């Protein structure tokens, strides 16, 4: 777990959310490799006169349970 996620967990949070620019495939792959997933929520913000399309990613802050192997 990243230090930021660990800090959120230590403050009692069990989930985290972040927004990623739609179409930023490199960032999407990065977050997905770190156990974040797109929940389907979208929004459009503006930077000046330019619309900015974003998608929301979330992840659990619960530790991964170790799996017993036989």
Describe this structure as you would to a colleague.
The two termini are about 25 Å apart. The protein has one domain. The radius of gyration is 15 Å and the shape is elongated. It is built from two helices and three strands; from the N terminus they run αβαββ. Strands 1-3-2 form a three-stranded antiparallel sheet. By secondary structure, the protein is an alpha+beta fold. InterPro entries: Acyl_CoA_acyltransferase.
Query: Helix proportion of residues, in percent?
Result: 10-25%
Number of strands: 3
Largest sheet: 3 strands, antiparallel
Number of helices: 2
pLDDT < 50 runs, ≥5 residues: none
Oligomer: single chain
* Class by alpha and beta content: alpha+beta
N-end to C-end Cα span: 26 Å
Which percent band covers the strand fraction? 35-45%
Number of domains: 1
Rg from C-alpha positions?
15 Å
Strand adjacency order, main sheet = 1-3-2
Give the helices and strands as they follow along the chain.
Answer: HEHEE
Outline: elongated
Q: Give the mean pLDDT.
A: 89
